[in-house]
Write a structure and sequence with these properties.
alpha+beta, extended, 4-stranded antiparallel β-sheet, 11 helices, single chain, 12 strands, 5-stranded antiparallel β-sheet
Length: 315
Amino acid sequence: MHETSARLLALLSLLQARRDWPGGLLAERLEVSPRTVRRDVDRLRELGYPIQATKGPDGGYRLDAGADLPPLLFDDEQAVALAVGLQIAATSGAGVEEAAARALGTVRQVMPARLRHRIDGLRVTALGASTTVDAGVLAALGDAVRAREVLRFGYGSDAATRRAEPHHLVTRGGRWYLVAWDLDRADWRTFRADRITPRTPTGPRFTPREVPGGDVAAFVAGRFRGNPGAGDWPCRGEVIVALPASEVAPYTRDELVEEIDPGRCRLVAGAWSWIGLAASLGRLDAEIEVVGPPELADAFAALATRFARTATPRA
């Protein structure tokens, strides 16, 4: 019985690993006869696994989707990946937090001790507030993106019905956004998913347009940086900071940090404005030499004047 059970688990693992398996190849991998493979397949069918026989010169088997979810089999790496993914889902703001937490508890309960210890050591903590979106709304948006159907929706407190061609669902900074071509404004827009109220029915199917630049991640980054159509900041400058690169790097995100010598580094950074860039560089609390452009040096001078006035005692 133990040998049969182990063989059934091995067979199930193989069927989950790829779509189609020739019967002869399964028998070879399991080191049994084709007849034994057929019997084992029948046993798995009795347990609820929808295994279909495939036609062809060799004949074979395929694990299809069924009406119910039968027990699944994961190897160690897949089980850990699933648990980490569920932890992230529980902090995603996608409206599935409770379901993800319950699913994680179910997965953890059936894990062997060695995997439970690994999962317990991988705790995901969400930094910063996230905005929760109704899971039904995300599902409706995802369906419209996949079906390439014009989305009709209300947005925020606006009672008017808007129309857009939905292209991508993205998450950034704890919020979900829909990247879409706004049909009423004839331009690309990013809509906050938590402000969208889908309306039925959806509109006609459309032929997808290409996101400006062809890269949705760069496009969205450009929108948030105040530079539509490009992924870079509208203001970017270069400075030399009197600090080791190792001390500056932890306070950067997408900036370029290069070591000049043990006590200095070159920093290339960007912001929405020159004043904003100068102010963000000032937080490093070190001597700064502006390499360029002149607008950045002017921004430092303007800030120096402003701060001097602020520091002057007043009656």
